[in-house]
Amino acid sequence: MPGKTLAELLEELEQKESTVTAGGGERAVEKQHLSGKLTARERIALLVDQGSFEEVDLFLEHRSTRFGMGEKHVPADGVVAGFATIDGRAVCIYSQDFTVMGGSLGEMHAKKICKVMDMATRIGAPVIAINDSGGARIQEGIDSLSGYGQIFFRNTRASGVIPQIAVIAGPCAGGAVYSPALMDFVFMIEKTSKMFVTGPQVVRAATGEEVSAEELGGALTHATRSGIAAFTSVSEEECFIQVRHLLSYIPSNNSENPPFLENDDPPDRENPELVNVVSPHPNKPYDIKKIIFELADGDTFLEVFPEYARNVVVGFARIGGHSVGVVANQPYHLAGCLDIDAADKASRFIRFCDAFNVPLLTLVDVPGFLPGSHQEFGGIIRHGAKVLYAYSEATVPKITLIVRKAYGGAYLAMCCRDLGADLVLAWPTAEIAVMGAEGAVNIIFRREIESALDSEATREKLLTEYRDQFYNPYEAAKRGYVDKVIHPVHTRRKVIRGLELLWSKREVGRGKKHGNIPV
Do strands 185-189 and 231-233 pair parallel, antiparallel, or not at all (unpaired)? Predict the structure, then answer.
């Protein structure tokens, strides 16, 4: 009997493709839309360059026979995977399909994800994971758990090699949360994303605590309290715009430099607006982001974790066309002190920048580590050490600008010369000292103050003398800890010149497997 004609074969191919790309069918797709969510393929189409997506493993099928799975057709096994371009640059991507068995992860579902992740590592392209899943496919038992383990293993091996971006576009619970947690940046969508190890029902059964899914694992919770969500948005459309924006600042892999973008913002532009940003009064707060935006090209600062640990600001800026990672104390919140959360936030960002060749600009106005028993019991010593470790380990160009306060151990932690800063600049308002004047005078001159006839007048006189001697950048400059004291007006120009000089910086490896960061 003769075989099928070419026309019949092509028609068969078209029918199979149509069946699979329909996902869970019209009713399931309609339900997805009614819940305010896009489908897996709609999400990919919205994120990548038009027409660039090439799908892999379209016809992959599960091989489970238990619990009725032998008769169950699971299109694409509940996940759409492949490669595409964003702004002309290659990316590998997978998007879980909630319309197909709730996007549950089984053996072949995981195999598709692993293939895409392996491809991303081989070709040196970012991997983007769009998560929308009910969790492990219970019918497949241990094979589902094995699938998660294989993904976690690849997340870890790819860390520091290619950027990994997770979009939480629906539920993400149980073991599923650990793949996004191992990735570099997590994006969440308000009122759509849910992320927790144990859901509200399990919490209620185990502890009696009543908490909603939104309160327990919604976007705002993870953006403000847990520090998991680096970015939040009000819609999927806004979320994907944010992903594209982030990618514009970072390289495709650890062997490339970040993208350089020409712009019409002059590199020698002066900054007269900076003259009056910092008050002469040491305790008057100001917004450090005014300085960041003034130094950046146009409006190019992209803040990361903007609602979490607000006493430190981190993010990407473009300065003189170069992508730069900015770490800055924020006097508007907790006076810019370093605490447990700020230390974690800063150290993780520093390590990302170092892994992907993004220079670091550190703006310093820090009165110290946040005091208190809560911080001590919570391990501020260990957490603060992470910042010291991250800066010391970083080999990218490191430029530090001391704006105002730089006291004690916190001065050291904010990328001082001794932690490997390549260029240390300071404004005339800089105050570099072991501690604040009041505390120092009370310790050094305790006996003189106690024995004086007018102790308050004596104390004020000693305070003035101490401030005159130490509350300036010149003592540090005399000893080479500060390279140059600059006029604020010239800050952008000095930073850009430093970046241009340091682009050729190279450090030879130290011949060890890895250090042991105080996690």
Answer: parallel
Report d(CA 351, CA 354) in Å as an integer: 5
Q: What is the pLDDT of residues 227-253, one digit of tens each?
A: 999 999 999 999 999 999 999 999 999
The kind and range of the H/E element at 402 are strand 398-407
Angstrom distances, CA of residue 291 to CA of 59, 330, 403? 53, 11, 10
45 is catalytic: no
Decide: 259 and 251 in contact? Cβ < 8 Å: yes
Catalytic annotation, pick one of 141, 199, 408, 409: 409
Distance CA 282, CA 513 (A): 44
Q: Long-range contacts made by residues 283-288, C-beta under 8 angstroms, separation at least 24?
A: 283/335, 285/331, 285/332, 285/335, 286/331, 286/332, 287/330, 287/331, 287/332, 288/313, 288/328, 288/329, 288/330, 288/331, 288/332, 288/336, 288/363, 288/365, 288/403
Evaluate if residue 303 carries a pLDDT over 60: yes
Catalytic residue among 84, 229, 410, 476, which? Answer: 410
* d(C-alpha 101, C-alpha 487), whole Å: 63
Average pLDDT, stretch 67-83?
A: 88
Q: 25 to each of 18, 33, 57, 97, 99, how far by Cα in Å?
A: 11, 12, 19, 11, 8
Q: Where are the alpha helices (DSSP H) in 22-56?
A: 26-34, 40-47
pLDDT bucket at 74, cuts 50 / 70 / 90? confident
CATH number of 15-247: 3.90.226.10
Catalytic-residue membership of 174: yes
pLDDT of 1 > 70? The answer is no
Domain assignments of the chain as residue spans, ordered by start: 15-247, 272-430+472-502, 435-471
Strand runs labelled E in 70-116: 79-86, 89-96
Query: Which position among 175, 199, 321, 408 bears the catalytic label?
Result: 175
Top-level CATH class of 272-430+472-502?
A: alpha beta
Catalytic residue among 124, 141, 160, 174: 174
Per-residue model confidence as pLDDT tens digits over 277-288: 998 787 899 999
